[in-house]
């Protein structure tokens, strides 16, 4: 019998490989994927501080910088659900391979183009390709990992996210300085994209060989063509939104709202066309609570993942290098938070406690720590680096523990055949937070002169998300009738 990731191909049975090896291969994928996207925040901050290129004439530079980041996430968000569905159809390993090769090439090209619109377009294209990684990574782990270790596997693999954010926070400022010396101040921003893109392209070759050995011959052409055709339409829409905002004076928040509306239209279309097939992934009220609550997870990740260097640098009046080292404590907390959160979730599941209650407790812990960080910045005249490092670490610890708990709970509630679509929906809705967070937080910074309001907003969203999890009462997949209708 052929593996689920070999649909559409006729191949010899694949060799048996350790599911733990798969975790660590995908860990590498997360590391470079997140480094590729997180590099934009420090680069934009460097451009603002040095009056470089297209940031020089901006009246609201932080809002514009946040909008550039949100455009990446608009692309990343919109391919989540389609790529999860394509992974269920053509094979999750095939979609992962396409995604990673795409990301490496697009990141390198981001470092060689010129002009604001082209830069934004390449960031959007990078996001569209990377959007295929998440839902298929989660589904592949669930498919190849024993159920009793499911959450741990999800946590171990996604720990690469924390490493990627940490590497980007620490390495980007020195790369910018070296790039300025090597290429000149006007072009120093290009070097981080070239370095991280090349590293991603090299890893993509290794990933291709490993996944081929895991599932057999990969069917790459069909999913690439389908993903590219979908991405071309989305790219035109997103870049048109950016052009309207930049050239016609549209407020940055309105552009972000339009991106969210586009995502919701996509959800409606998918529900109409595939809803009966994917009832437990798309139409179930309890999984919907998880999807909406996940907006706060991605909002927090990209408030700190995009702006943490700027937050620390502004609050403590320190250089970008020192600020990057301090900000890395937030990202680095995932090295502990992701696997420990996954391990605790599996323990709760095996002992009959359920994953939901632990998820609620961890989310409340995260909200309290974000709130404390905001209070410290507001009430302290001269914040110190070490206190900010501790608060950022504790915030990141809870934040990163929450994610594998939420994902494992989603897998528990959805039929295995629809896991790709479910994880695609999870991240599609969650990415609303990633799209809005950089631009809204940047706009609040321009309006208030500091980052406190943006941090308080994040704390409020996290605490509200904890309440949404109380709506989850089931412990297993939604039953459906033979024609795909939910059984109530």
Overall SS class: mainly alpha
Number of strands: 0
Which CATH architecture is right?
Up-down Bundle
Number of helices: 18
Low-confidence stretches: 1-16, 479-484
How many discrete domains? 1
Regarding CATH, which class?
A: Mainly Alpha
Radius of gyration, in Å, reads 21 Å
In percent, how helical is the residue content?
over 70%
CATH topology: Growth Hormone, Chain: A
Beta fraction: under 5%
Descriptive overview:
This protein is mainly α. It has one domain: MFS general substrate transporter like domains (Growth Hormone, Chain: A). It is 79% helix and 0% strand. It has 18 helices and no strands. It has helices at residues 19-38, 40-50, 61-78, 80-90, 92-110, 116-144, 150-183, 190-215, 221-248, 252-274, 279-282, 285-316, 320-332, 334-350, 355-379, 385-413, 419-448, 452-468.
Question: Summary?
Answer:
This protein has 488 residues and is mainly alpha-helical. The chain has helices spanning 19-38, 40-50, 61-78, 80-90, 92-110, 116-144, 150-183, 190-215, 221-248, 252-274, 279-282, 285-316, 320-332, 334-350, 355-379, 385-413, 419-448, 452-468. The chain is globular and about 55 Å long.
Question: How do the helices and strands line up, and which of them pair or pack?
Answer:
Blueprint: H1 19-38, H2 40-50, H3 61-78, H4 80-90, H5 92-110, H6 116-144, H7 150-183, H8 190-215, H9 221-248, H10 252-274, H11 279-282, H12 285-316, H13 320-332, H14 334-350, H15 355-379, H16 385-413, H17 419-448, H18 452-468
